Predict the 3D structure of the following.
Amino acid sequence: MRTPSGARPRAASPVSPVGANVSGASGRKEAAVGFDANEYREASLAGWEEAAAGWRRQREAIDALGMPVARWMLDAAAPAAGERVLELAAGNGEIGLMAARMVGEAGSVIVSDQAEAMVAAARERGAELGVENVEFRVLGGEWIDLPLASVQVVLCRWGYMLMADPAAALAETRRVLAPGGRLALAVWDGIQENPWAALPGAVLLERGLVEPPNPGVPGPFALGDAERVRGLLAGAGFAEIDVQALEVTRRQGSFEEFWQSTLDISRGFHDAVMSQRESEIEEIRQALAARLEPFTSSDGGLEIPGRTLVASASA
């Protein structure tokens, strides 16, 4: 993948058009040859610290895309009054802040992310909403700095597929859940089910600006297989496992809005595009606009389909 001079490739965003598509039924899939998990973790953290500003700017668009998923997860996990909830890989903290209303004053929520800047964005949003029963913490998904059996609910939307070792992350999730606790998660289905991501990725791939997806490495579509998700959950010791597919739609008011949103949300797309000459950037824009024409209405708005996997399980 080409990057600006001296820069390392970015770890993928959960809504990035640049990512691996991994399938398979086993609970654990071998990492790709040459994959350095620790180097990936460092790059991922650095990328998320830089991406936080764009996620702040695009909060409304991200919330709109993810709201059906948030509702499904909260219905499945059903946080109750007085319970303690943990949100992992929270980004702007939307789901945790919604859960805070459900658990009430007697309950509490920990909204967490590995990146300080993301936690700051979530804290800012919590202050805007006047939420008081929420703690904002820097926590990683693979090593959760919480005691054994200390929460009743864990929520993680579009996070596990980006972790270097999702099996370890789910085992940690199981460890911090109290007996009978509930997990609700979402990961993207295969990239072929998500043209909002596949089409930008295809334009970059055709121009040699990104490498083909590498099976076995983390990425937005790395867990896009229901049987693999089910196997990972079972391997981590979860019971009452339910995995479903949920249709979503990415709506944008114009192609320009889609373009800017994608640059803001996806560091991989941003770096691959913005490292090019202005003339080539314009060619990429035109090529992508043409690919998105089937999803463009007469008034210029876009409605692009997508599909995510959602899952619930009990400890």
Residues 1-11, 18-30 have pLDDT under 50 and may be disordered.
